[in-house]
Amino acid sequence: MTRLLRNGLESTIEGGSAEYPALRSLGNMVKMGADNPDNLYQGASINGDYEYRISGNRGSVFYLGFSSISGGYGTDGTMITDGFLDHTQLKTEADGSFEIILSKQEQSGNWLPMTDKTRSINIRQTFLDRSTERPAQLQIERINIEGTPPPYSAQQLDRDLNRVSKYLHGTVNLFADWSNSFGPDSNTLPPADQAYCQSIGGDPNIFYFHSYWELAADEALVITAKRIPECQTWNFQLDNYWMESLDYRYHNITVNKHTANYEEDGSVTLYVTHNDPGVRNWIDTAGHLNGTMCWRWIGTDDHPELETKVIKIADIPTS
User: Fold this and answer.
1) I need a surface site. Which of 2, 9, 117, 145 has the fewest CB within 10 A?
2) Where are the alpha helices (DSSP H) in the chain?
3) Which of 96, 93, 88, 175 has the alpha carbon at shortest distance from 126?
4) Does domain 184-315 have CATH number 2.60.120.600?
5) DSSP category for residue 11
6) What residue segments make up the domains of the chain, in order of their start?
7) Which 3-state string (H, E, C) describes 197-222?
């Protein structure tokens, strides 16, 4: 609740308005909806009645995607993608610089569509290796506006605190309800309802698997992807009951296409346990006895299903 409250206050009161937007970066301790540990998330308030320009430099980050969004967790509980543009469609200059126009009317060059209902922009920067990739440097501005924002009023504060309260209430309940719905599939990892994932802000380039996990002290959850498709990337992560990624700053709770260790046949097997069993692709529960989990296939139309089983840690193969 404190993390969501901080995010709500910063985005609603401190983060700029749709008239004078400012891009905010959600740090690694703002978590919701199975936030991807490989991602840098950014966003801003916008309005379909205006036009905007995003400018900056592409950097070398592996994946860069822009979504214009209508709805919100504090309003109708949805986040619908109105327009989408990723780095494969992005036209850049030789030095990596670019501009994107956000508008309802189609534009030449890089264009991110909006609608009358658009209220925010979501940006995902996905890294395979944060130590070597450079994030994109971005800024946003409203086109054809003059002057500076008026002083913040008591009336605005009253309005915005009510918005924060609705956001907090809506977000907590949304993800608690979603987590509860995974109960029948505990310790398996079936495909998620993709339409539902997209309705609450999912990336159109991603196919999601979501479920619930629970392990005793002497148990291991074994997850096997027998076939890795041709894709931009893939990843797996462990989350808590509230669908927040576990603390990946200090615990090995995630693996991706770049960091995984593969078998000779190209398959991947992960081991989720409470303590390090001394095998490759160990996923740390970080002190949690249960929670949720997510697998993503990114940038592919081929979505192989995953095999799961619970075994005793003593039965994990050592070779």
Assistant:
1) 2
2) 2-9, 154-180, 194-199
3) 88
4) yes
5) I
6) 2-142, 184-315
7) HHHECCCCCEEEEEEEEECCCCEEEE
Which tokens is 186 given? 């505990």
Q: What is the pLDDT of residues 83-139, one digit of tens each?
A: 999 999 999 999 999 999 999 999 999 999 999 999 999 999 999 999 999 999 999
For the sheet with 254-256, list strands across it: 206-214, 290-298, 233-239, 254-256
Residue with tokens 């959850």: 221
Residue 24's nearest CA partner among 116, 133, 99, 123 is 123
Reading the block at residue 176, the tokens are: 């608690």
Work out the burial of residue 33: count CB atoms within 10 Å of its CB; fewer than 13 is exposed, 13-18 middle, 19 or more buried: buried
Query: Do 184-315 and 2-142 have the same topology in CATH?
Result: yes
235 SS3 class:
strand
The residue type found at 196 is Y
pLDDT in tens, 244-277: 999 999 999 999 999 999 999 999 999 999 999 9
Enter the CATH code of domain 2-142: 2.60.120
Q: Dump pLDDT digits (tens) for 188-218.
A: 999 999 999 999 999 999 999 999 999 999 9
| Distance between start and end Cα atoms, the chain | 43
Is-contact 177 89, C-beta < 8 A?
A: no
Give the torsion through C-alpha atoms of 237, 241, 244, 245, to 10 deg.
Answer: -30
